[in-house]
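Supplementary Note 3. Input sequence used for the single-chain structure prediction.
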Amino acid sequence: MTVRAGVLGSPIGHSLSPTLHRAGYVAAGLTEWSYTAHDVDEGGLPPFVAGLTQEWRGLSLTMPLKVVAGDLAETVTDTARAARAVNTLVRTGTGWAADNTDVHGITAALREAGVDGLDRATVVGSGATARSALLGLVGLGATHITVAARRPERAEALRDVADVTLEVVPLADWARTGARAVVSTLPGGTANGAAAGHVDEDLTGATLLDVVYADWPTPLARAASGCGAQVVSGLEMLVHQAARQFELFTGVAAPVAAMQAAGRAALGHSPDA
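The predicted structure, written as discrete structure tokens, is reproduced below.
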């Protein structure tokens, strides 16, 4: 019998999730598993999930479904509640369990880059992904987090995410916070370029995770690297969050290296990009 999982969102054609999960299935010898992509919007999510047969074991969720997905779950993890975002639904004996693996993806990507035992850290941006970034940095030990934002009032809403000291500064000051770890949650394009324009400090010894993975390197990644920072692509976060989903769906340890290789090949990234 085929065992099924998939990714839902709208639009969905750009998703790398099928590439990552399928590579994992091959590497783990899970020949009975299938992973597919489905264009589903907010209104279409409840009927889609209601129509799934028992062969479906897990769903990955991307925009615009990360908020509404929690309404379909019987249980929601503390992490997903704190992040106010659900990117994973796992079939249980009685329904669906909701989780957020983006937080794990951020923590694991930074730890793989040598970051751990933090005290201070910085989040660039104050949108929805900033909540997951803040929680990911807390997982590495951060107790003082600076949020650099274009709209300080949005950053103030992050104070309820975790029990940390939160400082809010203008976006222009992000590179001056002295943090050893920085997570940029800004999208590609204009916002990313604006942050790049404020890199005028020596960033030697700092690590920047830019959650963007398309059109790599981004303007921000190039600018930070040019000032001495170690830069981590958002692809690494994507791989690690997918690996955690893989484990939740299958109950098998994720072959992370195989999933990384598939993602890097799909985007044309070199292993040290």
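The mean pLDDT is 95. DSSP finds ten helices and twelve strands in the chain.
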